[in-house]
Specification:
globular; single chain; 171 residues; disordered N terminus; mainly beta
Length: 171
């Protein structure tokens, strides 16, 4: 090991490299051991993949949002998420399990709606309803939800806006 003085009183320590029959630096086995030691560090420090179903409100008003989807037990509709103006809300956290999701939203101030042709049950207050039949008989209302085909992607985002034709996007 040699020490060399640089300008401004900084010293540089020169360490000779070791050579092996596999080239400079660590031997083949030493490199494997070094990488094996680092693997858990990279595994636990890597950010987790983030996937979910989100709705972003591109309007100037508060919007109430409900979602529908299929589970092993049948159809489920749930709501209400209150999404403030220029904000987003996560409706389903984690990797999406279905290909199709259904959305219904209402503008709280102006009464505008983002709706579709798929009828599902909703309630006046916060709800999670199993089944889409006999909404009125069970004490619920029936609303038309818009279908979103995610193509089995892990995450999806819907952008609600006042401008027709700019209401949806993916990832």
């Amino acid at each position: 090991m040699k020490t060399q003085m640089l300008s401004h009183g900084v010293s540089l320590i020169i360490v000779p490299q070791r050579y092996s029959k596999y080239g400079r630096g660590l031997s083949r086995y030493g490199l494997r051991a070094f990488l094996a030691l680092l693997a858990p560090v990279f595994y636990f420090s890597a950010p987790a993949a983030y996937a979910d179903f989100r709705v972003c409100n591109g309007t100037a008003n508060l919007v109430g949002v409900a979602i529908g989807y299929r589970t092993e037990k049948g159809w489920v509709s749930e709501g209400w998420w209150q999404v403030p103006a220029s904000a987003c809300a996560t409706l389903i956290e984690g990797e999406l399990q279905s290909r199709y999701y259904y959305l219904y939203a209402e503008d709280a101030a102006r009464g505008g709606r983002w709706a579709g042709d798929i009828n599902m049950c909703v309630a006046e207050d916060e709800f999670k309803i199993l089944g889409v039949n006999d909404c009125y008989a069970r004490g619920y209302q029936k609303m038309g939800f818009k279908e979103y085909d995610t193509g089995r992607q892990g995450s999806w985002m819907v952008q609600l806006s006042d401008t027709p034709g700019t209401q949806e996007s993916q990832n």
